[in-house]
Amino acid sequence: MALPASHPQREWILIGIAECCAKRGLERTSVEDVCDAAGVTREAFEGEFADLGECLGAAMEHIVGEAWRALEQTGSTDRPWAAVLRDGAATLLGLLAERPAFAHIALFEAAAADGRAAALRDSAHGALLEFLERGHDLAEPGVPGSAARGALAGAEALVEQRVLAGEAAQLAELAPAVTYMLAVPFTGIGEAQQLASSAARRRHLRAVA
After folding, report:
1. Model-level pTM greater than 0.85?
2. CB count, 10 Å around CB of 134?
3. Angle 184-127-172 from CA coordinates, rounded to 5°
4. Block means of pLDDT (10 residues each) for the chain, length 209 residues?
5. What is the rounded distance in angstroms from the CA atom of residue 1 to the CA atom of residue 110?
6. N or C end of the chain: which has fewer CB within 10 A?
């Protein structure tokens, strides 16, 4: 991810570990690898982080923080649940598409890590699940309590598949499909299709704007 030359050295290190993890995974990444990718010395790394685990936690904190700020800018307060879902899915996928190396950390490395990275991943996942569970208020009777968890797992699998295929930069293309998958247990097929179509139109308008 290209950043201005004046960007703080700490941020370059975070980009370095994200790129290394995307290429080879944390287990096969050394401090020297991160320093080489970031263009900093080992002394500079050690001045910021105690080890790779702490650095990974900071990288996860960076992308989670960007995600929450981006979601806040969608103006989701007091809007219908379905509209927030559509816009939130597009926002998160767009952010990950712009930061493909960080997408790998968020989806894979943090889930397998300990400490800060794992805690942030669990917290973010829990917040998403909590939001989806509000969809039960819209659902017809009989929708199982596990519907939100199943819908989120399916959407995550679709996104992860795209990242593993080396297509993280195209994640924004999944907005209609992800919107449909997350909405359909609660809104039914017809409204979920309308939401997906709306997501596709909005993505097209952003592309040509």
Report:
1. yes
2. 13
3. 60
4. 61 95 92 96 95 95 93 77 94 94 91 88 94 90 92 96 93 96 96 95 70
5. 19
6. C
